[in-house]
Amino acid sequence: MAKKLISTRWAVFSRRFVTAQRLPNGCAVALFRRRDKRRVRDDLVVKRQRVNTKTVTPVDDDDRVTALLAAAQAVLSMNVHARGYRLALLGPDGIEINGGTKLATVRAMTPTPTEEDLQQAEMRHALVEEIAGTAAWQMREAEHTTEDPDELIPLGYLKAIADRYGRGAIDEALAHLG
User: Fold this and answer.
1) pTM for the model
2) Helical (H) or strand (E) element with 102
């Protein structure tokens, strides 16, 4: 019995295939026209087999990008080359990856942050700013009770932070601030 084919947009196929192949977020399988080398729109509807970790076996780290693109072609019902297209793998930065590159190199690339990652970073930044405001207020209060605030207050606060969180936390915070 033939495998059931489903119709989806190219963008959906690309995202699912890249996820099933354990590539970093932001990578994509793209279609380019061979005659003018322009990228085909992502809303192109294609017929394909189901794509998940059970139906598509991940390509080995030692294999090349061309093997990954051949696996993508095998999932599609259309012959990409006969239609005048060519497949290409785009990295997380949106630049085309050479077909001779090993997949271990691609999998080691830094993924593009997701919206959820960006929201978490923004929330963390807001919390840090709120805590910094509270700490600044407390330091101003401590300055009024100390004779030599420029020397004693930083030492006192750093000692309290080191006692509570350890010296590693101070080093990490300084590295985070730049």
Assistant:
1) 0.68
2) none
